[in-house]
Amino acid sequence: MGKLLDSVDAKALRFAVGFPVVLAAAFVYCASLLRPDLPEPLAVRWTDDGGAAFAPFGAYVGAGAAMIVVAGWLVLLQAVPLGRPVMMRRIMMGAGLFLSLFLTSALAAGLIGQVGLADARQSRVDMTVLALGSGAAVSLGVAMAMVYKADQQWSPDDDRELQAAITRELDPDLARDSIRLWVHARSSVFVMIAIASLFPAALIAVVVPWLGILLVVLALVGAAFLFARIRADRRGLRVLLAGVVPVMTVPAGAISNASAEEVRAADYGGWGYRHHGGTAAMLVSSGPAVVVSKTDGQRLAVSGGSQDSAARLAEVLTRVAARARRGGSTPPATGRPES
Q1: pLDDT tens digits, residue range 85-133?
Q2: Alpha-carbon distance 268 to 277, whole Å?
Q3: Which contiguous run of DSSP H or E holds residue 258?
């Protein structure tokens, strides 16, 4: 029994067994709610001359629920063995989800098409229910195939998480010496950018469509550069413009002092990334910021978001700088890589 369990994906097995059963139970329950409005017997097949094949309500619902369970098991269980190719397991998981939902939609469409009729011969499959259910089944099946993690249960990411956990246990102060935050301009600035770009772009697009599109793209790029991602830890300070472009990287040992201050962006050259002389700045607005003095005499300023977050950032930078001067070791990279 132990060898069998080691050869299958336990989470996928639980889903493959349980999902069709739960889906079939939901179908039976919903069908029972419609029972007072359905004719007896129900039509199960329609012919071109207006005839139909019939079955009792219990047989229709019971056979339908059995079809959902059996079909779901037959396909979903193909994704459970770990020895099969990853791509095959992902496809089978998505296909099993799709098939179960499609059968449920088809059976439900047959029931809805007979609601309120005295004679099932007058009924037809409700195409609206069938179309909506089929569309949802296809989209959810594709989504399942894309997100299902069909690789081994232990991965390099798990190794990094384990190393991070061990490091945190050995060094309880590690979490205090790390801060990550996003800063951005005020909402009124983005509203101004939208007004100044979208309306002219709409007028220009009437004459030159590509120029209107270009104006909108430039506005979006400009707005993105009023975002910044700030990360401070025992390795030092790093600032990423628009969250992806590194513009400042300061090792902890190169920091002599950090303080939270109220600054005016105009004093540092304006919004965005600025660098002139011995001063660099990444300010998305005037207000709370952290001013850092480096050991080589240069200074830099970064927006701190709120007063509390700026004070916290300055505190972390001061502490890690002091630790680096005392010769404290720099911890290995922990957690998953930054995206």
Answers
A1: 888 888 999 999 999 999 999 999 888 888 877 777 777 888 888 899 8
A2: 11
A3: strand 255-263
- Taking only the tens place, the pLDDT of each residue in 257-294 is 888 888 888 888 888 888 776 788 888 888 888 888 88
Q: What is the DSSP string of 183-250?
A: EE--HHHHHHHHHHHHHHHHHHHHH-HHHHHHHHHHHHHHHHTTEEEEEEETTEEEEEETTTEEEEEE
**Cα 107 from Cα 74, distance rounded (Å):** 19
The pair of structure tokens assigned to 314 is 């300055």
Spatial separation of the C-alpha atoms in residues 326 and 160, rounded to whole Å? 28
Is the C-alpha dihedral spanning 296, 297, 303, 309 positive or negative?
A: positive
Burial of residue 138 (CB within 10 Å: 0-12, 13-18, 19+) is middle
Rg (CA), the chain: 31
Q: Identify which of 246, 251, 249, 247 has the alpha carbon closest to the alpha carbon of residue 234.
A: 251
Q: What is the three-class DSSP state of 58?
A: helix
CA angle, 3 then 16 then 88, to 5°: 80
How far is the C-alpha of 290 from the C-alpha of 288, rounded, in Å?
Answer: 7
**Start-to-end C-alpha separation, the chain:** 41
* Beta partners for residue 229, in sequence order: 182, 240
Helices (H), strands (E): how many in the chain? 9, 11
Q: Is 260 exposed, middle or buried (0-12, 13-18, 19+ CB in 10 A)?
A: buried
Answer yes or no: are the C-beta atoms of 137 and 102 closer than 8 Å. yes
Query: 264-279: string of b/e by CB count within 10 Å (b at 16+)?
Result: ebeebeebbbbeeeee
